[in-house]
Amino acid sequence: MAKAIMEVLHYPRLDTVMMVEELIRKAGNYPTKAELRRKLPKKMMYQTLLVILDYLEESNKIHVDGKSGEIMWIWGPEAVKRIKEKNLVVE
Known about the structure:
With 91 residues, the chain is mainly α. Helices cover 47% and strands 9% of the residues. It starts with 13 loop residues before the first helix and ends in a 6-residue tail after the last helix.
């Protein structure tokens, strides 16, 4: 993993990761991390949210724009299935 794992005090539980993932997936995008954090159904440490966002970005489920900070859902299992069926190489 990348950025937020330097000195993690608390790793998120799977249900917490899934909650954030589902919220972003349903919305499609969020303008900022702060806006996403406000929409969460339960309180979460900011560092924990950063760890989750890093994981989702590393697994190519989301993209966090470097300039605007917008969080966008990009995972498309149907597209991945079509690529695998055609034996295409994805980099």
